[in-house]
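Lecture 7 notes: from sequence to structure.

We start with a single chain of 183 residues. Read the sequence below before looking at the structure.
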Amino acid sequence: MPYPARTAPPGARPREPVITGQQHATSPATGPVPIDAQEPWMRGLHADTGYLLYRLGLRSGQLFNTFLQESGLRLRHYALLRFLATSEGALQRELSSRLGYDPSAIVGLVDDLEKLGFAERRPSPDDRRSRIVVLTDDGRAFLRDTDEAGLRVTNDLLQPLAPAERDTLHTLLQRVAEAELDS
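Now the structure, written as tokens:
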């Protein structure tokens, strides 16, 4: 059910425009004008590397979630499947800590994946009281089928960069991510 549109209370100050990466004006000489070109307050934000990473992360997630929407999954499901593809199975608490998701979110994600037949809970070989989550053959097939689409999403997002720049960006982001995950 759609949510009702929100309206501002009388006398409220207008909110700053929502940043969507879409065009919002047209110049007769140049065509569409990026939202940032008309918003001076954006210059400060675009000087902030953390903000740019945040924006690009949101955009990447939006693109990938749009692709995954057909399957009923979201990027969080995909990340969990990708992690499971690199292991022989994992306890839910391990999935929570390794992926950085709240433990209660992991339960729901695994439930969703089980319903689709992409993952299953099995008794842990080390502890009969614990259950590990493992990737099924259908989960592996789903990942194989999504590889090309994932590459398209990345290529769309990084289209302004030359191949060498993409490699450099990936290397630098990987270094930052590994240092962050090790701390």
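The mean pLDDT is 79. Keep this in mind for problem set 3.
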